[in-house]
Amino acid sequence: MRKLLLINFLILILTYNINAQSLAGVKVCINPGHGGNDSDDRFIPETGFWESEGNLGKGLHLKKLLENLGATVIMTRVQNRSVDDLQLSQIVAIANSNNVDYFHSIHSNASGTSTKVNYTLILFQGRTTAPTYAGSLVMANYLADNILATNRTTRKMVAGDFDFYGTGQAYLGVFKGLNMPGTLSEGSFHDYIPESFRLKNDYYLKHEAYAIARSFLQYFKGGEFKTGIIAGIVRDLLEKVPSSYSPLSGTYDNYKTINNIKVTLLPTNKIYNGDNNNNGFYFFDEVDPGEYKLIFEAPQMRPDTVTIVAKANQSVFSDRLLSLNPILDPPKILSYSPADSLNEVSNVSKINVQFDIRMNPDETQKAFSITPNVSGSLTWDSEFKILTFTPSKGYTQGTKYTVKISTTAKTHFGINLTQNKIFTFKTRSQFNLISTYPKNNFKDLSTTLMFSLRFDNALDGTTLSGKISLTDSLGSSIPVTVNQSRYNVGIIEFEPKQPLNYNSLYRLTIKDGIGDIEYVKTIKTDVIEFRTEKKLTFTGFIVDNFENENSWVWPNSNPNTKGQILDQTSFFATSDKKINGQYSGKLEYAFSGSNGIIELALEKPVKVVKSNQNEFGVWVFGDNSKNILEYRFIPEGNSSTEIKVTVDSVNWTGWKMKKINLGNILFNGNIEFKSIDIVQTINGEKKGKIFFDDCITNIVTDVKNKFELPTEFSLEQNYPNPFGNSVNSDNPKTTIRYNIPNQIHNSVNDENNSGAIDNDIYVTLKIYDILGNEVATLVNQHQKPGLYSYELNSRKINLSSGVYFYRLEAGNFVAVKKMILMK
Amino acid sequence: MKKLLIIFLVVCVYQIYGQNVKVIDDKPVTTLKEGKYFYPIISQDGKLLLMSKENREGLWIKDLSTGRVKNISNGKGAGLEPVFNIEGNEILFREDKIVNGKIFSTLKAYNLKTQKINLKEDNIRDLKFLKNKNNVSQFYLKQNEIQKISSTINFSKTTSEEIAVTIDVDKIVLYQNGVKKYLAPAGEGYYIWPSLSPDKTKLLFTLAGKGTFVSDLNGNILKKIGYANYPTWSPDGNWILFMKDLDDGTVITSSEIYIANINTGKYFNLTENQNEISLYPIWGITNDEIYYNTDSGVIRKIKIQFE
């Protein structure tokens, strides 16, 4: 008898061991696909789901499950940064160099169309019926069955990439060159909205990881899990999802799911607390086979119970439809926004009213009114407690509105609001241009400057047409390239398509009527006049020409760089902008705190000669960040000491040669140029983009066009025109510009030249009325060649409103133009 | 005389640091008629080219003087980094079989003189060739135990000064004078494509996602090369050859072959006029010859000129 018992015991142990799950000695490589929320990631805006996050969640759960089974797991990434998004060739190399037995890549799918589907797809290399590795097809079938069973998609599909993509040859990069069987699972479709919400639930991801782990156990003949899984979805019996979700027929996805559910598993007393990601999913794993009771609870819902039988190595489901608990109290308004009597409310502000009880949406919407009337839409939160009004095209700026919810508003159970609720608010009235680069009357500007207009709210780009113009002194329009990417922070940046002329006058006009994203418009016209720099050329010995980024230590690898945001700080060679050669160096940076430094250091410092005759400089395309530009030097061969030289505040845009005199450096001995540094200032921008080209020493500066003067006479149209108090009460002036050329007086008959000194010429500028009567003399004197302007203030001249003519006479040159005065 | 010496020095410095590179020829070595081939490897004498299929199945030899292509294996994994022995008379390769999902390798040697294949060892788990220099190996690893390939070579602390390198998951493993050293020179992550410089004083490797680096044998970083996949040393040790492949997460969308000067950091695109995706480059036996495969399965040879 004892012998029999022993035999029975041995049989039991043997049976247990045969079924006991183990992956000891197995080595696998798991590749959670994509990564980094970047350009090759996939994002679903309706749900906020990133494929890289879902893939990683499944991968990390799978790693744990497989390691618990004794396997060695090589993960191609365990985080979700761009740097973890490895190249396909690197992923293959990792699997190969570690001699793994199997490779699996985890993904979710997208149809990319309005026709929604939700099936499970497993891919491998080869023909569908003739895979490169026979094991891939075996595993693909396990995966398809197991993932279909956990995710409960509508169907499964298994295919080789030669056939699936119709290429007849290797297609998927993650299999190319792989030296072992491999598969890629597209567990479900993340652009099917109900599934996308489920993929935001970490336990849902874990469930798919179990499916993959079960497949590995089958593939490696490693037995089965001794425990099982109980899972399901809890939905609202009364509510349906919006039609935009496109719920698939044959599923319960047309019912709205319930957030924040609580599910209790008895008799274990395990509790699952649901999330608020609109999936209603619940999950219990490591459940021993046997009968259990589930209790479902959710705010304001009637509790529900069900009995369920758990099975080893399987997932069993119980989906529930819960109904509301009746409440017969009248509803209360718990909160509302905007607050009563609030001023300067955003012109697109939503109106929210929060009730304490689920409301009847139709009756409550009828009870809602806003005066003056505004077109817009009313929506509810998932529990029908928060009513939201969204104006379709904003409110009228600077207007007082009254909101009323009348007593006809009803709860879901038919009980009315006991009192009318009324509150008011006033909308924003102004949208302003708060700063510009350049400012009015700026001089010596780079001919490649980048214009920047900063407003106090995000811009509506559609309102800009015809509102901004850049003209030269003759009124000709200058073509520009506009950067629209910063409209969302209220900034317009643009650059001339061709460099501007040197030493020339330009005018930037920003007209009123530019709108922000809240439909508020500017009410003022701004005019900015500026002059570009004289032409200079700089020659010398080039220390570095920025043609190769590898000559410089990357700022993030430089121990002197501090306070930077790592993933927003970089240095690369670029052909976007340049002075010479093919490339310049582009430094993008961002500071996290208040005393950051970005250092761009040469790989090897270069000796420079320190003398009063020696200038050293770098072509710098400034970003007007107001941070400090420094050059740093070291004593020759002594990198432990730094000599810092402040070059300038970065208060310009466009290319400028920023040079220093090396003779001014207070150090006795030879020095080496080490680095260019951007030092953060209190008022400086926290982010910037700056370009460098040709770092030069022994600079020789050649002044071109030193005596650049007009080559011909001209009289320009006055600006503004019309002018006067009724046009602009703040600035009732107009400016008349004219040019006197540098002419050679070699004619004895030039009577106006008699008595003139050098190139002087006799000039008169007079005003005539419409009948030809002279009414004012503005200029009556000898003038040297040059660019002249006369500012005429309508308050200071005794002229009535009307049309006038101004006449320039200089030597043989005569020109007349018309102007209109409106007093 | 002094002037002459300066000119001589300038010329030397220019030769080392100031070189420009010009591609003077880029032509196919194999044709699609012969078959699609990938992952070229060159013999020490430059006369034989080893190649495989895209999925590493099988191994072929192309005799570059006669143009003849000979198949020496149809085994799985035979094309995964086969090597020549130090004497140059044998090609070592693996053939894999799968038992209950686990991969077991057979180590085989093809004798170039007798054209016969010897089975060296069977049922090896985790077989890796330890590389002494590009495409040449004296040792292999069998489940982390070092084994000699040639009977004329010992690998012991007292008798050998041989150095070899391989990878163990997240570390570079350096075998030097019988001592095993684990290195992670550029931080945490997966190390791939390690190789020793021809003078065996430096390591070249890629840390996945972080870039390619050169370090000394103690793991001190000497140079960051940047984004440079499948890097290898030039025969004279002054240049690095690599591919810059880009993908969209699903397929490789482009790839170019570059060389970079290890001293100046100056680099040159060798395939900018080549329309095909260019992958897995290797040096020939001199600095001016490079082999690579296109995505469509043609092995090509680039001839370059240093100016």
How would you describe this structure to a colleague?
The complex is a heterodimer of chains A (823) and B (307). Chain A is built from eight helices and 51 strands. With 823 residues, chain A is mainly β. Chain A folds into six domains: 19-219, Zn-dependent exopeptidases (Aminopeptidase, 3-Layer(aba) Sandwich); 250-322, Immunoglobulin-like (Sandwich), CATH 2.60.40; 333-427, Immunoglobulin-like; 433-532, Immunoglobulin-like (Sandwich), CATH 2.60.40; 536-703, Galactose-binding lectin (Jelly Rolls); 714-821, Macroglobulin (MG2) domain (Immunoglobulin-like). In chain A, strands 4-1-5-8-6-7 form a six-stranded mixed sheet, sandwiched between helices. In chain A, strands 34, 36, 37, 39, 42 and 44 form a six-stranded antiparallel sheet that branches. In chain A, strands 9, 10, 13, 16 and 17 form a five-stranded mixed sheet that branches. The longest helix of chain A is centred in the first third of the chain and has 18 residues, at 2-19. Chain A starts with a helix and ends with a strand. Chain B has one helix at residues 2-17, and strands at residues 21-28, 38-42, 48-52, 59-63, 69-73, 83-84, 90-99, 102-111, 117-124, 127-133, 136-142, 145-148, 163-168, 171-176, 179-183, 191-196, 202-207, 211-216, 221-226, 229-233, 239-247, 252-261, 267-269, 278-283, 289-294, 299-306. Chain B is 5% helix and 53% strand. Chain B has 307 residues and is mainly β. Chain B contains one helix and 26 strands. At the A-B interface, helix 3 of A face strand 19 and strand 21 of B.
